[in-house]
C-alpha cells in the first residue's frame, strides 16, 4: 500500500508520485530477535489492544515496510492487522494502490486514541486523510472496526 504524508500530498498526486517523510523521522527502534514474525511479510508481530479487543498486528516500522504495507496480499486474519508508527506525529494520507484487501484505516492520534476511521477500496488511489496529526495508523480488514465497536476516542495500546 503506498503512503503519502505531509503537505506535499496534493503535489505528489499531481506528479503521479508518492511523497513520504524523511526516513529518519519514520523509523522506530527495531524489535527484539525474539519477536514473532509474520509468515508472509516477515515483519515482527506485536500485540495491540483497542479498548478491550486484543489483536496481533504486523509492525511496519521501516520506510520500506511502510511503503509496501499490505500491497499484493490476498488475505488477512480477522484479529490481524498492520500498524504503521509515525514519529514525529503528522498529518497522514493512505491510499490503496496495489492493495487487494478492502481495509479499515484507523488513524491514531498522538494521545494514542482513535482519531478517525476511513475505508479503503482495493486499487483506489484516492488519498484518504487523517483528521489531524497521527502517531500511528492501524489497518484491519474492512468492517472489522465496526464489528468490534471501535470508534474515535478509543484507546490503542501496542
| CATH A-level architecture | Sandwich
The biggest beta sheet is recorded as: 8 strands, mixed
Radius of gyration: 14 Å
Count of folded domains: 1
CATH superfamily placement: Protein of unknown function DUF192
Order of helices and strands: EHHEEEHEEEEEEHE
**Which geometry do the CA atoms define?**
globular
The CATH class label is Mainly Beta
How many H/I helical runs? Answer: 4
- Ends distance: 22 Å
Class by alpha and beta content: mainly beta
What's the pLDDT, averaged over the residues? 84
Counted beta strands: 11
General description of the model:
There is one protein chain. By secondary structure, the protein is mostly beta strands. The chain is built from 4 helices and 11 strands; from the N terminus they run βααβββαββββββαβ. It has helices spanning 9-15, 23-26, 63-68, 144-148; strands at 3-5, 36-37, 44-50, 53-59, 80-90, 92-94, 103-108, 114-120, 128-129, 134-141, 156-157. The strands form 2 sheets. Strands 2, 3, 4, 5, 7, 8, 10 and 11 form an 8-stranded mixed beta sheet that branches. A 3-stranded antiparallel beta sheet has the order 1-6-9, with no helix packed on it. Strand 2 (36-37) and strand 3 form a beta hairpin. The two termini are 22 Å apart. The model is unreliable at 1-31 (pLDDT under 50).
Amino acid at each position: 500500500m503506498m503512503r503519502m504524508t505531509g503537505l506535499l500530498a496534493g503535489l505528489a498526486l499531481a506528479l503521479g508520485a508518492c511523497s513520504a517523510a524523511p526516513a529518519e523521522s519514520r523509523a522506530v527502534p527495531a524489535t527484539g530477535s525474539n519477536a514473532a514474525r509474520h509468515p508472509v511479510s516477515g515483519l515482527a508481530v506485536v500485540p495491540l489492544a483497542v479498548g478491550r479487543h486484543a489483536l496481533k498486528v504486523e509492525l511496519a516500522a521501516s520506510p520500506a515496510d511502510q511503503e509496501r504495507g499490505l500491497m499484493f496480499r490476498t488475505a488477512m486474519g480477522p484479529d490481524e492487522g498492520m500498524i504503521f508508527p509515525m514519529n514525529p506525529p503528522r498529518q497522514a494520507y493512505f491510499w490503496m494502490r496495489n492493495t487487494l484487501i478492502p481495509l479499515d484505516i484507523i488513524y491514531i492520534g498522538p494521545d494514542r486514541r482513535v482519531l478517525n476511521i476511513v475505508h479503503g477500496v482495493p486499487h483506489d488511489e484516492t488519498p484518504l486523510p487523517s483528521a489531524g496529526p497521527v502517531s500511528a495508523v492501524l489497518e484491519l480488514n474492512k468492517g472489522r472496526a465496526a464489528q468490534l465497536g471501535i470508534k474515535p476516542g478509543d484507546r490503542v495500546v501496542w
